């Protein structure tokens, strides 16, 4: 998610929810230079990944490929997949026809062998899912022992902050409406408390090495003065970042 929601609702009957094929171009265009994506999420992932030269990385839910491109620019060998065929098409336009990009669903068995990757990135993916057990098990399977999984999800304080009636400790489905460059979108998320996240990581065979609430990139203060005036510390609590190690 790249735009802060304004009016969350908890509905179980949402038409075409999370269907990125319907708004892939608009979503990509908006987030090429957005504060939350270009100057917060992507640089934070690159920073957490560190030296990735020669490392084989799986970008799970790669979207149109901006994280893949950033990691490839740092010397990684990047493979990506997304459930949206349109997003994979846009990623191929960005990364080239020879890029290893596939249409696949993170909630189902992945088309990669055991231990195929040094690292995985799942950025703004898991918070769309009620059940994390199967996706995390698959990501653990395709990682080498000692490999890293970098996860970015909605911060657990976000929904309770937006809707004070929310039970922080309950796993809660909620939706919001967006306009991405003229393309309407309905996105549905699952809120869960922090301990539920870390418990799921442990159950899947990961050790939590880092929990991060990073600041925005320094240049964001100059580029987005009005937005950053609301966050004098330079930190956004819209997402929380994890670095997990495969046990």
TrEMBL record:
Record carries keyword S-adenosyl-L-methionine: yes
SUPFAM superfamilies: S-adenosyl-L-methionine-dependent methyltransferases
Pfam families xrefs: Methyltransf_11 (PF08241)
Coiled-coil parts of chain: none
UniProt GO BP: methylation
Methyltransferase type domain: residues covered: 58-151
GO terms for MF: methyltransferase activity
Keyword list, A-Z: Methyltransferase, S-adenosyl-L-methionine, Transferase
Protein name as it appears in the record: Methyltransferase
